[in-house]
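All the exercises in this workshop are built on plain-text protein records. An example says more than a description, so a record of this kind follows:
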Amino acid sequence: MKIVIVTGSSRGLGASTVLECAKRGMGVIVTYNSNPEKAQEVVKAIAGIGGKAVALKLDVGNSRSFRDFRTAVSAQLKAIWDRETFDFLVNNAGYGLYAPIADVSEEQFDGLFNVHLKGPFFLTQALLPLIECGGHVLNVTSATSRVATAGVAPYAAFKGGLQVLTRYMAKEFGERRIRANSIAPGAIRTELGGGLTDDFEAMLAGQTALGRVGEPDDVGGVIASLLSDENRWINAQNIEVAGGYAI
């Protein structure tokens, strides 16, 4: 059985991803930051379809906590799956902030940086010894790194940095046959950044070739598919999953 860790998987895109992975027979480690009840609901849903999952607390914005998280992962791998390694890491956790460059505070900037770039860098570093040779690191970035949208400059800049980091991961992890790719969702109907207003959603839908904004399941299935052996020769790529946004 393949085992996947998906950060920020108690709701939204992350929850869809772990459910899709479980449907494909993967064992799942769900992570949450502040809502253990939601995480347990996801674990229960996975059990309901015959899967096996566990939830662990993780604050991706606090890199000092990663060593303890790795210890917790090791303990759960042994207790539940009788393994010392896992196969796939999906760096998904994140949050949004809408503010023009002129109004962004240094504290807001640092918070976004810690979660969207520093966190994935050092979490991957911390967990790398536990990733099975032939595994996969998949980073969730954003279509805002391609299409400039006023008000999300720091978020988009760090997502763009994560795309570059992904290529370097693929280069450096290749000796262990660990692939690294990123996916860039467009507008998705989730709670990220407080959700979408009706007017903003209509505007985004009008700029999308398929005529709507995305749902979490539009992306979760893509992530699960990319982790599979069917896509074993896709490496060092950023794949936009946005229904044809701003083309």
Summary: The chain has a mean pLDDT of 96. The longest strand covers residues 131-140. Helices lie at 12-23, 36-48, 66-81, 106-127, 153-173, 198-206, 216-227. The chain is about 45% helix and 15% strand.
